[in-house]
Design a protein that fits this description.
Rossmann fold; 2 domains; 6-stranded mixed sheet; 5-stranded antiparallel sheet
């Protein structure tokens, strides 16, 4: 079967579990990017299968649920959701997240930046946009051959996420005044939390959905600033729940006013 850049495919060797887009082909090797999962991989051409719409039925159901905005009492009250600054190394995923914020009626600024460069610029961005919620995400992976799961050097980009979180915490040390959501697929969850993230991936070192960081950020943006969040409930709104993202109990960022 002939494949070309832009084709949607799955991998036979992985039970066709994830849908990818072909972003480059070099001889018999294809470079793939997850359509919905934050994942970059290489694959032999002969291991690929053309995408079948039926394969994505469950995925589309999740996305539909994710795009349902919360019901707010707009008869008497008005609402001031928290502001979001989203920094993402992947332009396609960033665009999807910005669309999600827009449909959720929350203010968000998106910046496309490589993981290794985020720490150098993050204080300037925080000073410029003054967000209530900061999302730092992109691509990551745990390489078992490089070391144990608690070794930050065994990960593709976790050390860059940690560096960026630490710089952000130098700007604002309070977990309540600046909520940080960080990580990618298989990130070193414990190190990201220790660095100062409120929410991070990935407790079970699994892949996360492209929208998962945005879902967490939006839930925090639309949660009452005077109340602690229901941590378990918010994590369950993501694609893979507590296996994909974990965090700490935090107050929301939304002010509620009266009268409307």
């Amino acid at each position: 079967m002939n494949f070309k850049v832009g084709d949607l495919v799955t991998r036979n060797s992985h039970s066709n579990d994830i849908i990818f887009k072909i972003i480059n082909i070099d001889n018999d090797i294809a470079e793939l990017k997850g359509v919905n999962v934050r994942l970059l991989v290489d694959s032999y051409i002969d291991d690929l299968k053309k995408y079948d719409n039926e394969d994505i039925e469950e995925e589309e159901s999740f996305v539909k649920r994710a795009y349902q905005p919360p019901m707010l009492n707009r008869n008497d009250y008005f609402y001031l959701p928290g502001k979001i600054l989203h920094i993402d190394s992947d332009y396609d995923y960033l665009s999807r997240c910005l669309d999600y914020y827009d449909k959720s009626n929350v203010w968000a600024m998106g910046i496309n930046e490589r993981e290794e460069d985020i720490a150098d610029n993050i204080k300037n961005w925080l000073s410029k946009y003054k967000p209530d919620i900061l999302v730092i995400t992109g691509h990551d992976a745990y390489y078992k051959k490089k070391g144990a799961s608690n070794d930050i050097n065994a990960y593709k980009n976790s050390k860059h996420f940690v560096a960026a979180i630490k710089k952000a915490r130098e700007y604002e040390g309070s977990h309540e005044k600046l909520i940080i959501v960080s990580g990618g697929c298989g990130s070193c969850y414990e190190e990201l939390i220790k660095a100062g993230a409120n929410f991070a991936s990935s407790p079970k070192r699994i892949n996360i959905h492209a929208l998962d960081p945005a879902i967490i950020a939006t839930k925090m943006s639309l949660s009452d600033i005077n109340k602690n969040i229901d941590l378990k409930d918010i994590l369950e709104q993501t694609k893979y729940g507590k296996d994909g993202i974990g965090g700490i109990i935090t107050r929301g960022t939304m002010y509620v006013g009266y009268p409307r």
